[in-house]
């Protein structure tokens, strides 16, 4: 069926209910008249100038993102401000904006299911379950055991490339069979990764002291990837959900919105192992 902004956002609200979002989060419709006809939707991790420009370039009437544009309170959307310029650009271009953030993180399927699928995991269960059977992160099994070093290469190939690449903490020869994942910043779930029996935990934004203390204790190895890269796989999932419900074109953005743009290898450029 043909669709309007209001119909598509209502469907997304049903798939990713607002009540699933964290109290601090800001999800749902941000701008766009509900009656506006939609022929094309762009899906991106971030609502930034480059993805707004991409929405214009591909002729989208709706931009669906994972990260909120207006997460924290603002007193103005004047075009002289960063966020105000984005809001003006969206409205002046006739493009609506919709956000599914922590409500997409806990959905089943959701952000971590998409990440787990990219890594070939099966028999998935939540890393931090809720009473309703949803939850943050996923735990699953690889098709066959491998080493940490080999699995790190799988992760690097499966996720979109970023300047930072991935970082690994642990014995490169460690046997890996069970894997925990959490798309986005995941150091708040290190204890869950330890308790679930995983051999390795794949996430993003691991902090120096937290990771350093954690790796000294018995528990899984760590793979730290770029935040954007771990959440990019979800875009394919949500695009398919919209495409299944409505007769609209869907475009998934591969514009790298990771803030880091250059990686310079240490020492002679070889991998360093202790």
TrEMBL record:
Swiss-Prot/TrEMBL keywords: Metal-binding
GO molecular function, one term: metal ion binding
Residues that coordinate or bind a divalent metal cation: 66-67, 105, 227, 231
Top-level taxonomic group: Bacteria
Claim: Hydrolase is one of the keywords in the record: no
Annotated Pfam families: DUF34_NIF3 (PF01784)
GO cellular component, one term: cytoplasm
Record-linked InterPro entries: DUF34/NIF3 (IPR002678), DUF34/NIF3_sf (IPR036069)
PANTHER family the record matches: GTP CYCLOHYDROLASE 1 TYPE 2 HOMOLOG (PTHR13799:SF14), NGG1 INTERACTING FACTOR 3 (PTHR13799)
Assembly notes: Homohexamer.
Family of this protein: Belongs to the GTP cyclohydrolase I type 2/NIF3 family.
Protein name listed in UniProt: GTP cyclohydrolase 1 type 2 homolog
Upper classification of the organism: Bacteria, Bacillati, Actinomycetota, Actinomycetes, Glycomycetales
């Amino acid at each position: 069926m043909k669709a309007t902004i209001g119909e598509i956002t209502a469907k997304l609200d049903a798939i990713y209910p607002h009540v699933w979002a964290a109290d601090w989060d800001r999800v749902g419709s941000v701008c766009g008249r509900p009656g506006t006809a939609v022929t094309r939707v762009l899906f991106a991790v971030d609502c930034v100038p480059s993805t707004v420009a991409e929405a214009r370039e591909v002729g989208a009437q709706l931009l669906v993102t994972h990260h909120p544009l207006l997460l924290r309170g603002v007193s103005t959307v004047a075009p002289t401000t960063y966020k105000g310029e984005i809001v003006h650009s969206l409205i002046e271009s006739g493009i609506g904006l919709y956000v599914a953030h922590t409500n997409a993180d806990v959905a089943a399927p959701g952000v971590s299911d998409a990440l787990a699928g990219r890594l070939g995991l099966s028999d998935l269960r939540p890393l931090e379950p809720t009473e309703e059977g949803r939850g943050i992160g996923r735990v699953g099994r690889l098709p066959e055991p491998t080493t940490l070093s080999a699995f790190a290469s799988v992760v690097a190939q499966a996720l979109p490339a970023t300047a930072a690449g991935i970082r690994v903490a642990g014995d490169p020869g460690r046997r890996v069979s069970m894997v925990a994942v959490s798309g986005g910043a995941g150091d708040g779930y290190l204890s869950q990764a330890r308790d679930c029996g995983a051999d390795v935990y794949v996430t993003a934004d691991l902090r120096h002291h937290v990771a350093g203390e954690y790796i000294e204790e018995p528990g899984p190895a760590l793979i730290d990837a770029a935040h954007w890269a771990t959440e990019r796989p979800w875009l394919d999932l949500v695009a398919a959900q919209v495409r299944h419900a409505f007769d609209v074109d869907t475009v998934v953005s591969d514009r790298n919105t990771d803030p880091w743009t250059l990686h310079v290898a240490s020492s002679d450029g070889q991998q360093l192992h202790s």
